[in-house]
Amino acid sequence: MRLGPPELVIILIIVLLLFGAKRLPDLAGSIGTSMKEFRKATKDALDDEDDEDDADASEETSETSSDPDTDPGR
Fold first, then answer.
1. Mean pLDDT rounded to a whole number for the chain
2. Each residue of 35-70: pLDDT tens digit?
3. Which residues 6+ apart lie within 8 Å of 15 measured at CB?
4. What are the C-alpha distances in Å from 24 to residues 5, 52, 64?
5. CA 41: distance to chain centroid?
6. CA-CA distance, 52 to 45, in Å (whole number)?
7. Structural contact between residues 35 and 42, judged by C-beta atoms closer than 8 angstroms
8. Is residue 27 within 8 Å of residue 19, measured between CB atoms?
9. How far apart are CA 9 and CA 15, in angstroms?
10. How far apart are CA 53 and CA 50, in angstroms?
11. In terms of Cα–Cα distance, which of 34, 29, 4, 33 is closest to 12?
12. Neighbouring C-beta atoms of residue 24, cutoff 10 Å
C-alpha cells in the first residue's frame, strides 16, 4: 500500500491543524536532531562491537603463536 499525493496532503493538513504553523519548524528540527543522535549512537555501538570482535580475534592469534606445543616447526 503506497501513499499518493492526495493522502500526503491530507496528512500534512491534519498535522498543521494539530500543531499549528508556528510549531512545525521546531517540531521538524527536534525530529531531525533526534534522528541524528540515534544514527550516531547506532554507529558508535556497531563500531564498539567491531572493535571487540577484532580484539578477540587478535587475542586468539597471539595465544596460538606463543604456545610452543602448537608450533608446527618443532
1. 81
2. 999 999 999 988 888 777 777 666 666 555 555 566
3. 24
4. 20, 42, 60
5. 6
6. 11
7. no
8. yes
9. 10
10. 5
11. 4
12. 14
Domain range list for the chain: 28-62
Question: What's 72's DSSP letter?
Answer: T
Torsional sign, CA 40, 41, 42, 46 = positive
Report which residue type is found at 34.
Answer: S
Q: Determine the Cα–Cα distance for residues 27 and 19; give it in Å rounded to an integer.
A: 9
Q: Which three cell numbers mark 61?
A: 592469534
In the chain, count of helices (H) and strands (E)?
2, 0
pLDDT at position 71 is 57
